[in-house]
Structures
1.
Amino acid sequence: MPEGKIIKALSGFYYVANEDGIVQCRGRGVFRKNKVTPLVGDEVVFQAENDTEGYILEVKDRKNELVRPPIANVDQAILVFSAVEPGFSTALLDRFLVLVEYNHIEPLICITKMDLTNEQEKSRLEEYAEDYRKAGYEVILTSSETSEGLEKLRPHIEGKISVFAGQSGVGKSSLLNAIRPDLELKTDDISSHLGRGKHTTRHVELITINNGLVADTPGFSSLEFTEIEAEELNSCFPDLAEVSEDCKFRGCLHMAEPKCAVKAAVESGTLPEYRYEHYKDFLLEIKDRKPRY
């Protein structure tokens, strides 16, 4: 039986690519019975009825999967955040980073619309970028208009499955259009009334860019920690996790425990205070979450 990769899912059809081309497939009823939903990025076994139509028979084991956007086997998440319009938010970035870390996906932070910043804004963003680089993250400052940073971004895409993710209106589609102009992905201006972008991406699709596959995904408006337990949150902050090895008590949650190395690092300025504040906010959110049965 032929095998391939799902590169697009739309209206109950799965578009499977292999060396012979793309076959439009439906899922067999067994998937619904076993509660298996094929996802973009899945490696699958399929049966071709003819050159262009077929059925998916089997979904291979996944190395990871995301719920929103619904995609599997992702190598990296390129987290696109605008410098302005909408304004840069470390709280939202940290929320994305936690979810990406929890799913064992390599993150890359991309701050775009740098051409719209004044000197003060640019300086502040460069300070944030340095904080995140010290935390172990790759950070690239870009502009779709001036092509700033695009040459640094391109090599990271090669040979990988990447998700371009971020808030609506931050310029994900514009960035992809700048990297590969023939895409002509639809973009919309920021709604001045709402202060955020309109959703222009309606489905998940893997696009070939720079010898890699990139998913331009719908923007998110809410990201909840539905799966993460309180004890797991520390490991989703690599900078906190590294420092926490010196905490006196094993399993320290860095809240009220004595001789906490994380709190000491924040007080000494080794760790950015805003990262710690976000950690505490997220921890309380997880603890206040309604129990699942």
Note: The two ends are 40 Å apart (CA to CA).
2.
Amino acid sequence: MQRQSHAFSLFIIGTLFFVFGFVTWINSQLIPFLKQVCELQTDTQAYLVTFAFFISYFVMSIPSSYILEKTGFTKGMALGLFIMAAGSLLFIPAAKHQAYSLFLIALFIQGAGLSILQTASNPYAVILGSPESAARRISIMGICNKVAGMIGVFILGTILFSNIESISENLNTLEGAAYKAELQILSSRLVMPYIVIAIALSLLALMVLYANLPKIEAERLPKDQPKTIFSYTYLWLGVLAIFAYVGAEVIAIDTLSLYGNYHGINNDDAKFFSVLSLIALTVGYLIGIIFMPKYISQRIALVISCLLALVFVSIAIVTPSYLSIGLIILLSFAHAMMWPCIWPLSIEGLGEHTKLGAAFLIMAIAGGAILPMLYGGLAEMTNRQSAYWILIPLYLYILYFSLHGYKINKHKMLLK
């Protein structure tokens, strides 16, 4: 009976991870689209899309943990979905007025809702079973996430970039009111998709409210364990590892369209690069599910992932266009096991601090806000290919965490 209850709960959490992926990865299509529609001049301005979306995790993660303390997991998840729906609806006036600032506010609101969902669902998936198989469960959730991302990127990319090259050529021949009118028609392509997204999110929120998910509590701390979360050194090193990982993952996917443009590939073709990256991630997740924890441990999988990523990016920086693009896409394969492995290694043994620890790990998703902006700045100072060197120190740090940082102070805490 308990196994059936856990299976149903994982199905609901998997559905939520599907939502995470759909809403998150369609942003890769918004970057080049809004750059044209809102007449942005630089890559740094375009990457404000990722900044607005992911910085909300930093702002909302700690408030999210307190919200969940008051509402519980189920009501908190539903609240997060309703907030995301509100952010989606804000795309309607933003598209009507081609107001970039309003788009960014809408993305921030979406990210705020996702922050609540992530703060609830990730520890829920970790606790819902043995710690040794946590990375496997999160990998299954990751497949839901990336399949949704592929679907979202394909659908939105098709809607936004249909005949985009001929439209762009036509825009170059127009001026004044005619030019603005054509841009308005192009911008209106965003309206219907985000209305559908808002409706779907609201219906899912109602489903979660009535799903009757079981209450899963973290283990209670013995009385002699530290009462402050700041005593857990390995958690804070894990927070920084999540920051580095999310930044690297977002850079590797959301920069691909503009990177394709840099090598002379038009948006009609470049829009599919993100789909290929998400396929690479999904393949990585499937391999992780097969091999962990039966054949390799979570930690060893993380070490291998870091080494692969370092090899791929080092070669991508110095090779010709198509090979370089292919290697950046392969980075997503290397990324697949990073989130599933960093999470359980960071959260193990936190006991009653689990929810707050999860909130700090979710806060670190802000790496997806800050690091792509740094990439954009470097791309303007050098070029879009050379700027990928920013990934190397990120992978080196995650490698350090997988070799040593994950265990600092941990055994002492678990033995108390």
Note: The chain has one domain: 2-214+221-415.
